[in-house]
Write a structure and sequence with these properties.
This protein has about 210 residues and is of the alpha+beta class. The chain folds into 2 domains: about 60 residues, Winged helix-like DNA-binding domain superfamily/Winged helix DNA-binding domain (Arc Repressor Mutant, subunit A), CATH 1.10.10.10; about 140 residues, CBS-domain, CATH 3.10.580. The protein has a 4-stranded mixed sheet. The protein has a two-stranded antiparallel ribbon with strand order 1-2. A two-stranded antiparallel ribbon has the order 7-8. Strand 1 and strand 2 form a beta hairpin. The longest helix has 13 residues. The structure holds adenosine-5'-diphosphate.
Length: about 210
């Protein structure tokens, strides 16, 4: 957030002299308390200052950047995830390409009965098969997908920051959002409940940029 000159001045005074009352801040700036009221409200609501009754204002130690970081750690994958687009391992490469176009996605999640994660297939996986001279009507996606346990996943309770970090670290566009199946092997039996993609990150970025 962009602070005005006066808000910067208030912040400096509180950093140096806090806890300090509104009246004292007004005195330092040679202004009335009423004039400062809106600025004090903005600084407090933004989390830069904290107010304690009978004590006064003090600096929270949170910079605007830290506040953005806190927010990105607070928002959960479950709040922003998209609907997963899934196919079976037996689906042909041809049908997978058609599904990508119809559903307008770049990554398909491959599942077995019960929506259990088997693998993921990306645009490049499908393009690669077209170079091999295969019959794409016959070739199943199971042959070209990235298979478990090599699929990087994310849980609905993980932060969007942690998820975005996985996208960058593993150089992939999408992560299946999963939860362990009750009574199953927590490394292998993962139920697909969503899809977290670079688009989710960009959308959040735009929303944060709008100040919402
Ligand atoms: P694209 O192929 O369109 O560039 P990606 O960068 O996501 O898309 O995929 C690159 C490779 O990583 C592909 O071989 C794909 O199967 C694999 N891949 C995609 N998503 C994941 C994931 N979540 N975990 C592991 N591998 C993945």
């Amino acid at each position: 957030m962009e602070l005005t000159k006066r808000q910067e001045a208030i912040l400096e005074i509180v950093k140096k002299e806090g806890p300090i009352t509104g009246e004292q801040i007004a005195e330092r700036l040679k202004l009335t308390r009423a004039t400062l009221r809106a600025d004090m409200a903005i600084l407090t609501m933004a989390g830069l200052l904290e107010a304690r009754p009978r004590v006064g204002y003090y600096y929270s130690g949170r910079t605007p950047n830290k506040l953005i970081a806190e927010k990105l750690h607070r928002i959960k994958v479950g709040e922003v995830k998209s609907v997963p687009v899934v196919v079976s391992e037996r689906c042909s490469v041809y049908d997978a390409v058609v599904t990508m176009f119809i559903e307008d996605v770049g990554t398909l999640i491959v599942v077995r009965e019960g929506g259990i994660l088997e693998g993921v297939v990306s645009r490049k996986d499908l393009l690669k098969t077209t170079l091999g001279g295969h019959n794409i009507h016959q070739l199943p996606v199971g042959v070209v997908m990235t298979r478990m346990p090599n699929v990087v996943t994310v849980g609905p309770e993980e932060s969007v920051w942690a998820a975005a970090k996985k996208l960058i670290t593993h150089e992939v566009d999408a992560l299946p959002v999963v939860r362990p199946v009750e009574g199953g092997d927590p490394r292998k039996d993962l139920e697909v409940i969503g899809r977290f993609t670079k688009t989710n990150v960009v959308r959040l970025f735009v929303e944060l940029g709008e100040g919402s």
